Write a sequence for this structure.
């Protein structure tokens, strides 16, 4: 897409997204990965950097990296290496972070990002690399008077850092990339995507420049775990840099923290470059060797990715771009749609409508709807066995009764007397009723034929009233329209 120009400046954005991998153990130690425990229970000698403790790579984390590489078209290095990235923060007990520097596990790759929900238009974001590294611990400030306490439960957790080229030009594009990557890693089953727990965190490198000029001085916005906050942070930082340049000041290369609630950033420290970290090859870790058989095994088990699903839903199933986008944006909704749609072939669009509207409301209220029950409800309504106006009440009955299969849905329909009469004999009987209603209401028939369509509802209502219970309003509407078109009196 063409870069957006604001006040004579282009914004240039590159992202570094830390993806916490779904592994039972940490990256280099046997310590478990758990959430919500009291501090410092999941800490191993390796994570604490105790003398003589030797790291051993977690092959499950390697498997996760391979899956992402295959999904985004990266080159998978057959012999990547680890380094020690030196810096001192209290929540990093070793005084360095074990990461990949010169030879990352993944090189290159692309992510296609939908930038227009209505049309499905995409832009391609190129990746520089993705590398394995361990997470740091967590500093707890101010929870106990003025003391900072340290929780090392998270220290050593496996991360995959995904680095993009500076190819995005707005906060919205950065947000959409973050959401697209989240959908990919959740679909692959390598990350739970839990933003509240920090399972994905983005660092945004933002600069501004005049169109066609070299890249400007970049500022890093650190540890943003919300797509909306990421968009707001990028836009805020770009505006801050524009103001600085316009008044003749200089943009300083630095790292800033974003306060999503206050919608403000503050300076954290001067931005480090590679020499500041004094990268050294890790003497305790040999090259990470990945064989062709390992890659082939993961390739064979890759699921369909969100963008491919979206295009299939639109092209083959007739969903709108908006419907398909909402469904693929959430792996739980995708699973529900796939399961219910498979049980209601030919009615997938109706399944999507029910899922995104009525079922979404039920779920928001704490209810659940089984795929088999939803599919049967959709089929009953779409085939005219149950009136559409009764379908919503039936859905609530399904939830309240805990119905989970098709047979139980049919039993509920019959118990409530909701099943409509169907068949050619019903149509013949309705045509006779319509003839009687038309003969009894010639004025209204004439008004409809004169163009007063609102009166048609009166005629349909009279047909349903005369025919009695169990008649599909849609069928009555269709037959009334046919009778009016045929000029029957």
């Amino acid at each position: 897409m063409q870069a957006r120009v604001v006040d004579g400046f282009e914004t240039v954005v590159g992202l570094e997204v830390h993806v916490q991998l779904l592994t039972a153990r940490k990256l280099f130690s046997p310590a478990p990965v758990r959430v919500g425990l009291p501090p410092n229970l999941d800490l191993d000698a390796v994570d604490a950097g105790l003398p003589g403790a030797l790291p051993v790579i977690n092959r499950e984390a390697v498997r996760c990296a391979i899956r992402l590489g295959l999904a985004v078209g990266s080159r998978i290095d057959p012999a990547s290496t680890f380094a020690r990235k030196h810096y001192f923060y209290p929540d990093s007990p070793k005084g360095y972070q074990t990461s990949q520097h010169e030879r990352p596990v993944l090189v290159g790759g692309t992510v296609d990002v939908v930038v227009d929900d209505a049309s499905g238009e995409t832009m391609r974001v190129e990746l520089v690399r993705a590398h394995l590294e361990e997470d740091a611990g967590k500093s707890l400030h101010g929870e106990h008077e003025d003391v900072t306490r340290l929780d090392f439960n998270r220290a050593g957790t496996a991360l995959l850092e995904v680095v993009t080229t500076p190819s995005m030009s707005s906060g919205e594009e950065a947000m959409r990339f973050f959401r697209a990557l989240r959908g990919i890693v959740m679909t692959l089953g390598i990350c739970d995507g839990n933003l509240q727990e920090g399972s994905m965190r983005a660092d945004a490198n933002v600069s501004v420049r005049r169109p066609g000029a070299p890249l400007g001085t970049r500022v890093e916005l650190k540890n943003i775990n919300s797509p909306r906050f990421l968009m707001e942070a990028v836009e805020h930082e770009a505006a801050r840099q524009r103001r600085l340049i316009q008044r003749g000041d200089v943009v300083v290369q630095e790292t800033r923290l974003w306060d999503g609630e206050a919608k403000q950033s503050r300076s954290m420290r001067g931005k480090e470059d590679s020499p500041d970290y004094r990268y050294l090859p890790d003497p305790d870790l040999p090259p990470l060797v990945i064989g062709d058989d390992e890659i082939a095994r993961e390739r064979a088990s890759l699921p369909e990715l969100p963008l491919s699903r979206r295009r299939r839903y639109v092209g083959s199933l007739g969903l709108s771009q908006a419907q398909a986008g909402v469904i693929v944006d959430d792996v739980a909704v995708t699973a529900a749609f796939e399961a219910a749609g498979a049980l209601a072939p030919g009615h997938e669009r109706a399944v999507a409508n029910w899922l995104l509207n009525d079922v979404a409301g039920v779920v928001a209220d704490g209810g659940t709807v089984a795929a088999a029950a939803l599919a049967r409800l959709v089929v009953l309504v779409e085939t005219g066995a149950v009136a559409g106006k009764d379908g919503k009440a039936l859905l609530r009955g399904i939830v309240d009764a805990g119905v989970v299969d098709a047979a139980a849905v049919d039993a509920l329909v019959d118990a409530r007397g909701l099943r409509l009469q169907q068949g050619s004999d019903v149509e013949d009987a309705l045509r006779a009723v319509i003839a009687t209603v038309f003969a009894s209401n010639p004025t209204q028939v004439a008004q409809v034929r004169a163009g007063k369509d609102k009166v048609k509802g009166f005629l349909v209502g009279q047909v349903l009233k005369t025919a009695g219970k169990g008649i599909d309003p849609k069928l009555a509407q269709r037959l009334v329209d046919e009778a009016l078109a045929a000029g029957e009196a």
